[in-house]
Amino acid sequence: MADELAAVPVGVAWDVVRLSAAEGWRTVHILQNLGEVGPVLLGPKGVEVMVPVGAADGWDLPGARVLARAEQVEVPPPRVVAPHTRHRRTWIVPPTAEPAVLTDADALYGAYAAALATGGSVR
Length: 123
What we know:
Layout: E1 6-9, E2 15-19, H1 21-34, E3 40-43, E4 46-51, E5 65-66, E6 72-75, E7 90-93, H2 105-118
Antiparallel strand pairs: 1-6, 2-4, 2-5, 3-4, 3-7
Helix pairs in contact: 1-2
């Protein structure tokens, strides 16, 4: 069904970096201000940023988790954008192109480090 979630394997078209919701939102705002953000999901476990395959290997920042290649991410249709949700999942930044333009892992790392360092809310 077109309105349901699609289970997409990690490590094929992109990898996923999962961040806690608070730091994830701050990170997305930083990346948006830099003009360097690709597709980003919000789910019950936090903010999930799509990066090129292998680009986030070896990440060491606290609270960030690079999903394993054997895992899957459930994605809603691209038109389901916050504040709208589909089964508790929504796009913060929906994919806009085929293939999707992904977030640069180095830019994400720097933005996340800055979000961790600044703490306070940017929303």
